[in-house]
Amino acid sequence: MVLDPALIELLCDVPGATAVYCVRDDRGRTMDTLKVIADPAGGYLAVYHCGVGQGIYEVHVATSSDLAAWTWRARLDGFASQPYVTALPDGGFLVAVEAGGAGTPPWLRLLDFASRADLLAGKASRTFDAPHTLVPRRKYAEGTPNIYAVSADRSHIDVGFHYFRQGKVDRQARGVLTGFADWSARREPQIDQALEWWGVHGNIGGRDMFGWKGREYLLVEGQGERSRWQTWRTYLYDAAERTAWPLPVRTHGGSAAIANPAVTLLDTPSGEPALLVTAYLFHDGAAEGEGGPLLYYRALGSP
Predict the structure, then answer these.
(1) Owning domain of residue 109
(2) Is 3 helix (H, G, I), strand (E, B) or coil?
(3) pLDDT digit string, tens, across residues 203-250
């Protein structure tokens, strides 16, 4: 992999960015695993989950005008977590979540919102619960989705996720939903192998794709050792070369355990093009005052 120093700095230099630690909505909920996008109506949208009980989560949506103060709008799903949102050309939105938990092996769920008003009211026009295809449904998880691509008519939806391989570790997979009815999936061992080369023996989970100077990259979370939360790190994966590189992310206090990465190219509140990253800083390995959801962005300097 040929690393672009400018890209590495944008992804890793949190003190040099505009940063918000322990991101919360106006009702005091921590916005865990948040995914931020530009709001077509102006400002920004974010989906996120928050805990409501032991191992139980709910998914919500909030809006912001400045990427710092977030106003809660609606609950999108109960008994669900790890949300991802994408805006569609016809004014609708697609949200993917990891449904289940608290002893129930998770599965993937897609929620289709016909309009922004429906999204902010939490009224999905239809949902799809994906059947397990890579592991037994009653035993192991499939979850932590991202949305790679959606056709204009929603007939083809390309989704990334993880599966619990042999009941031991999460590994990467990709599925396609056709006609909002037919689901197929495959493993993505090339991503797993790229992180395993760096000694990742624990889980390989959430990911997000973005384009940079004509190349496609993923941010992927990898856990060095199973059951050790402080060993989570974020990796940059080059889709063309099928290689990965650990990102030396620096926070103000020196937090180490950085996971659940998501990335968006958007305009800042002042109108400058920017690269925005969100992540979760596990409290095992976090500096004082930094644990929880993190949001940071840097202007790119030119359109």
Answers:
(1) 5-299
(2) coil
(3) 999 999 999 999 999 999 999 999 999 999 999 999 999 999 999 999
Residue 156: CATH number of its domain: 2.120.10.10
Rounded distance between C-alpha atoms, residue 52 and residue 56, angstroms? 6
pLDDT at 280 over 90: yes
Tokens of 288: 């004082």
Distant-in-sequence, close-in-space partners of 109: CB < 8 Å, separation ≥ 6: 77, 80, 96, 97, 98, 99, 127, 128, 129, 130
Strand partners, 94: 86, 112
Other C-beta atoms within 10 Å of 183: how many?
Answer: 19
Beta carbons within 8 Å of 136's beta carbon, 6+ residues apart: none
- The whole-angstrom distance between residue 55's C-alpha and the CA centroid of its chain comes to 19
Strands (E), the chain: 18-21, 32-38, 44-53, 56-64, 71-78, 80-87, 93-101, 104-113, 126-129, 142-150, 156-165, 169-178, 182-187, 204-212, 215-223, 232-238, 243-246, 258-267, 273-281, 292-299
State the pLDDT confidence band at 1, using cuts at 50, 70 and 90.
confident
Q: What token pair was written down for 178?
A: 């056709």
Going by the DSSP 8-state scheme, the letter that residue 241 receives in this structure is T
How far is the C-alpha of 217 from the C-alpha of 239, rounded, in Å? 6
Q: What is the pLDDT of residues 2-60, one digit of tens each?
A: 789 999 999 999 999 999 999 999 999 999 999 999 999 999 999 999 999 888 999 99
Give the pLDDT confidence of 158-214 residue by residue, as tens digits.
Answer: 999 999 999 999 999 999 999 999 999 999 999 999 999 999 999 999 999 999 999
Look up residue 138 and give its DSSP letter.
Answer: T
| Number of separate domains in the chain | 1
- Token readout for 54 is 């032991």
